């Protein structure tokens, strides 16, 4: 325990040349440096008490404290939110930020953030404008809805619609649609928070029109249909067509609201990928309100869109929650440009749709070019491999896309060690592990990201020799 008594005081450690250099290089405060040293000293104390440093000299002890403090100081300068390379093949990876934006949308965000903007200003009249007007025309043109508004995500849209129109009343939902989405958010819980009473009908696998009809009474305000997100059933199942539900709601003077979840504006069924309903087709069936995410199949920033009949959208715009759940100018900028690209049928410019539609042969050619430029690696070995990509983000759970990638092996490191090495690159490389092998799916990689992976693998290979 003598080592504990020989740990230098903080004020002496602060005078060390390495610490002084770190303070100057990273332009950190005296207090930041002091805190890093205190954390480092505490860490060393704990290790000494656990029986470590037994054969270490005082110089070793001092150097260990300084090195840990320097590492912590440098770590503080790395942003917590940082870019990564998505080599998993999951296009809408929720943990990695879901949809990445089109370059045009990024430019519009930067431009709008760099200047004052017309967020709530009408340059024609010189008077106050409404942020609701910024993208409404794009949405109504794309969906055929009478009116629309934007909130900060689809869960917020669901909460707002229920709070505005069904608070203290009942909303009818099929048991087969009472799903739980990512982060343990349940439709039933959102309904409860909104003050809406949930009226469950049918069974998990089968719900009929008469189930809805029998549940309607004086306290019923809404029939709600919920997209099942990342869950689907097959086999002995039955649900009621939205056209029938819209007609039933109209006969009983109820609101028919559909939570569409993914919000598909581009018809992927033409490509043989999915029969997911297009928002415009849903609106055409007589639905009063729909809501959906922007950062899923639309390929935009995090936001939620509510579209439908003008009388209901007008009521939502006047509701107190409209201010609570509104989005900022940068979200509007990214959304406006994403919608403009969709409206002008430039889907190849929207990364999410481009990656979903990417042909597997194109991906295979990219892999072969990559391997041709990454030769003579040892102890690493690379081999081409056929793969299956997923859309992800709680969308199209039944869809698998033919893809191509590489399998990375190392004769001197375990798979776990290899994945950790790739995660600690200057731009972290996130891969997937299958059958104890590191797999990199090229569907979700830009060309410059492929170059980064090549560079990272070559540098890693050289370190392991």
From TrEMBL:
Signal peptide: none annotated. GO terms for cellular component: cytoplasm. Gene3D superfamilies: 3.90.1150.180, Type I PLP-dependent aspartate aminotransferase-like (Major domain) (3.40.640.10). It comes from the Bacteria. Keywords: Cytoplasm, Protein biosynthesis, Pyridoxal phosphate, Selenium, Transferase. It is an enzyme of class 2 (transferase). Its cofactor is pyridoxal 5'-phosphate. Pathway: Aminoacyl-tRNA biosynthesis; selenocysteinyl-tRNA(Sec) biosynthesis; selenocysteinyl-tRNA(Sec) from L-seryl-tRNA(Sec) (bacterial route): step 1/1. It is found in: Cytoplasm. Its EC number is 2.9.1.1. One of its GO terms (molecular function) is L-seryl-tRNA(Sec) selenium transferase activity. The modification N6-(pyridoxal phosphate)lysine is found at residue 296. Pfam families: SelA. Belongs to the SelA family. Converts seryl-tRNA(Sec) to selenocysteinyl-tRNA(Sec) required for selenoprotein biosynthesis. This is L-seryl-tRNA(Sec) selenium transferase. It comes from Alkalibacillus haloalkaliphilus. The lineage of its organism: Bacteria, Bacillati, Bacillota, Bacilli, Bacillales.
């Amino acid at each position: 325990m003598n080592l504990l008594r020989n740990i230098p005081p903080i004020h002496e450690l602060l005078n060390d040349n390495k610490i002084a250099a770190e303070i100057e290089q990273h332009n950190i405060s005296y207090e930041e440096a002091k805190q890093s040293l205190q954390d480092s000293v505490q860490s060393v104390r704990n290790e000494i008490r656990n029986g470590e440093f037994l054969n270490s000299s005082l110089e070793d002890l001092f150097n260990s404290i300084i090195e840990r403090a320097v590492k912590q100081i440098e770590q503080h300068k790395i942003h917590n939110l940082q870019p990564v390379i998505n080599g998993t093949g999951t296009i809408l990876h929720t943990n990695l930020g879901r949809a990445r934006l089109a370059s045009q949308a990024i430019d519009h965000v930067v431009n709008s953030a760099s200047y004052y903007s017309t967020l709530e200003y009408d340059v024609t009249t010189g008077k106050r404008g409404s942020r609701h007007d910024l993208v409404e025309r794009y949405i109504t043109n794309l969906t055929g809805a009478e009116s629309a508004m934007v909130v900060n995500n689809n869960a917020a849209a669901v909460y707002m619609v229920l709070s505005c129109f069904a608070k203290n009343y009942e909303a009818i939902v099929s048991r087969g649609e009472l799903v739980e989405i990512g982060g343990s958010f349940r439709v039933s819980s959102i309904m409860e928070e909104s003050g809406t009473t949930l009226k469950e009908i049918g069974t998990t696998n089968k719900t009929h029109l008469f189930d809805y009809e029998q549940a309607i009474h004086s306290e019923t305000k809404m029939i709600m249909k919920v997209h099942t997100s990342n869950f689907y059933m097959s086999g002995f199942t039955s649900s009621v067509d939205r056209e029938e539900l819209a007609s039933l709601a109209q006969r009983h003077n109820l609101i028919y609201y559909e939570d569409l979840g993914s919000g598909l504006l581009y018809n992927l069924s033409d490509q043989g990928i999915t029969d997911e309903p297009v928002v415009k087709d849903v609106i055409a069936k007589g639905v009063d309100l729909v809501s959906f995410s922007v950062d899923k199949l639309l390929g935009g920033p995090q936001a939620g869109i509510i579209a439908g009949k003008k009388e209901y959208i007008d009521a939502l715009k006047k509701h107190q929650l409209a201010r609570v759940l509104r989005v900022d100018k940068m979200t509007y900028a990214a959304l406006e440009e994403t919608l403009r690209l969709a409206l002008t049928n430039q889907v190849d410019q929207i990364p999410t749709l481009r990656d979903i539609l990417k042909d597997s042969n194109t991906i295979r050619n990219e892999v072969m070019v990559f391997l041709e430029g990454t030769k003579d690696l040892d102890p690493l070995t690379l081999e081409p491999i056929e793969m299956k990509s997923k859309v992800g983000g709680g969308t199209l759970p039944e869809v698998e896309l033919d893809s191509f990638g590489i399998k990375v092996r190392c004769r001197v490191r375990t798979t776990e060690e290899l994945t950790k090495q790739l995660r600690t690159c200057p731009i972290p490389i996130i891969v997937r592990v299958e059958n104890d092998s590191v797999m990199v799916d090229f569907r979700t990689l830009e060309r410059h990201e492929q170059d980064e992976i090549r560079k990272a693998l070559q540098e890693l290979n050289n370190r392991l020799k």
